[in-house]
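To fix ideas, we quote verbatim a fold written out as tokens:
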Amino acid sequence: MRPSGRSIDQLRPVSIETNVTMHAEGSCIIRCGNTHVLCTASLEPRVPPWLRNTGLGWVTAEYGMLPRATTSRNRREAQTGKQSGRTQEIQRLIGRSLRAGVDRVALGERQITVDCDVLQADGGTRCASITGGWVALRLAVNKLLKAGDLKSDPLPTHVAAVSCGIYGGQTVLDLDYAEDSAAGTDANFVMTGNGGLIEVQASAEGAAFSRDELTKLLDLAGAGVDELVAAQKTAIA
């Protein structure tokens, strides 16, 4: 029995509320159970110096956790003068994942920065950030399309992410913190709306896992991403 009482192939309740800030070109709050993330997309009419005059656009991301997103207060990283290694790794993952679903030629020489701020954490914050970050990105691109600033849609497919793992000897979908902290294997899958794989992160915390178990995790992730993409479609409809 999972701590939450969910079946092994059941996501936590997912909701995506859009247009939650008045200034960002795209914004949403994604809630995956008790994990809540604010995602905003900000448009700039320029690209980093190494991309100037290439005709290519750029999508990047930043990630952070509010001080009381967890059970005890964390110091703001700005106070220490540097980001933790975990923060840097996660925001690079978010940026890579979102860029993989972007036609950078169609985007043109402009940059969109997706900020993902964790309001409340209960496992799966990077996956929620990618899933919600894509919605914020989609809303920002929709404004460009509506204004006639783009000749074609630079987002040909959805991008979403979900965690899976081996908990209590079973392969399970969408780990919350209670499961994540005790799982024998922990994995994150980033996928496109048509089932393509963007990134897979998987590691054994105890005993090694088998190829058959990896296949089961991938099957669970595919079904979970299908549900998340359906939630994205509902949010931007």
Notes: The longest helix spans residues 211-236. The beta strands are 14-18, 26-32, 35-44, 58-65, 111-120, 159-167, 170-173, 185-192, 197-204. The chain has one domain: 14-236. The longest strand covers residues 35-44.
